[in-house]
Design goal:
250 residues
Length: 250
């Protein structure tokens, strides 16, 4: 085989591997259920927030739904299930061993998995976020402000699934990652965990700061710092998942 033919064959195998990983994700029923549920929840919550008729609390302490970032962001944890099941479901019934047999090069395999995840979640994030956000923002903000707002929400909906993806590989199941991601903000909201210096660095709190609705003033980060913290969590989770795939899983 000539050098050009060998290069073409490698390129083809990479495309086939990427296509296979995308197929695994889009053919999993949880993928479409999670995307549909997230779209419905986002659109419903944002539409309710746009009317300013829904308030949480009582008397003078009632707060408009549009100001409660934690509530409006809740659907992202349903969306995270797309990534969690993409990674964690392969640990059942020995499916991952079959994958390793077919693709012994784990670096290429992991790169294809991450690329496939982003290929699915990026357009899906745009689809599930845009309708509701536009319903909430149109008439209240200028076009540039709307664009920035959308980009911030897209970032949250892209990075949190990457974190869930890495956690699913580390824990080798589909239950622990969403539990861990949801448990942290619950502990913060209930006052069980009260260390502002640490809380502001958690993925959920950084996400709230990034979209401009921090839960508490003491945990608020500048949007740029929040983006850096969130990106750091994504890189850390992806690296941890990659390490476990390379070194631990057989």
């Amino acid at each position: 085989m000539t050098a050009d033919a060998a290069t073409a064959a490698v390129g083809l195998r990479r495309r086939d591997l990427f296509a296979a990983e995308v197929t695994k994700i889009v053919t999993h029923p949880v993928t479409w259920l999670a995307i549909a549920a997230t779209l419905v929840l986002n659109t419903g919550l944002d539409a309710a927030a746009a009317t300013d008729a829904v308030r949480i609390g009582a008397g003078d302490g009632a707060v408009a739904l549009s100001e409660l970032g934690g509530v409006l962001m809740a659907p992202v944890y349903v969306f995270v299930l797309v990534a969690v099941f993409a990674a964690g479901s392969e640990y059942h019934n020995g499916q991952l061993r079959v994958t390793f047999t077919a693709v012994p090069d784990r670096l290429r395999l992991y790169a294809a998995k991450l690329a496939a995840l982003l290929a699915v979640t990026v357009p899906a994030a745009v689809a599930v976020v845009t309708p509701g956000r536009l319903a909430l923002l149109l008439g209240e903000a200028s076009t540039p402000d709307i664009a920035v707002e959308l980009l911030r929400w897209y970032a949250v909906y892209v990075v949190l699934p990457v974190i869930g993806f890495g956690l699913a590989i580390v824990t080798r199941n589909v239950v622990a990652p969403p539990t861990l991601l949801v448990l942290a903000p619950v502990l913060v909201a209930t006052g069980v965990f009260q260390v502002p210096e640490v809380i502001r660095l958690l993925p959920h709190e950084a996400s709230l700061s990034l979209v401009g609705t921090p839960a508490y003033s003491v945990t608020e980060l500048h949007p740029g710092a929040a983006a850096a913290v969130l990106a750091g969590w994504g890189v850390l989770a992806a690296a941890a998942g990659g390490y476990c795939l390379f070194r631990r899983d057989a």
